[in-house]
């Protein structure tokens, strides 16, 4: 059990770092926002608009929230993996489908109940978000699980 938990934790940290790096790069390209601003934005999901005026502690809370979410999705992936591989044997397709599932859960369940203001739906933003989650979470988890996790 400990070995399984360690592999899930390692995979969650890897995909959490990939997703966070993508968020930092996208925010910088879109608006010149710093990594601290991105982390405060994540914390604002829990704290509301006051998080944008917060300091390092607020940014650390955003970091903690981000990795809790990444680890939760990683845990879900590994719990479903035995069944998913039977239905979707291709690791690329599995990664794409899981990335889309993560985007769907985040945008239809998590963000609507957060303290962040709702935004109008835009196809460009949705497709960018899906692509990031596919490339940073779905596909890496699919390949990490093939290399490091026996589901038989």
Characterise the protein shown here.
With 152 residues, the protein is mainly α. It has one domain (2-148). Helices cover 82% and strands 0% of the residues. The chain contains five helices and no strands. It has helices spanning 2-31, 35-47, 56-87, 91-113, 123-148. α1 (2-31) runs antiparallel to α5 (123-148), α2 packs across α3 and α3 packs across α4 (91-113). The radius of gyration is 16 Å and the shape is globular. The chain starts with a helix and ends with a helix.
List the helices and strands and how they pair.
Blueprint: H1 2-31, H2 35-47, H3 56-87, H4 91-113, H5 123-148
Helix pairs in contact: 1-3, 1-5, 2-3, 3-4, 4-5
What low-confidence regions span 5 or more consecutive residues with pLDDT below 50?
A: none
How would you characterize the largest beta sheet? none
Give the quaternary arrangement of the chains. single chain
- What does the radius of gyration come to? 16 Å
Distance between the termini: 15 Å
Global structural class:
mainly alpha
Global geometry: globular
Q: Number of helix segments? A: 5
The tally of structural domains comes to 1
Secondary structure: helix percent: over 70%
Which percent band covers the strand fraction? Answer: under 5%
Average pLDDT taken over every residue: 93
Order of helices and strands: HHHHH
- Secondary structure: number of strands: 0
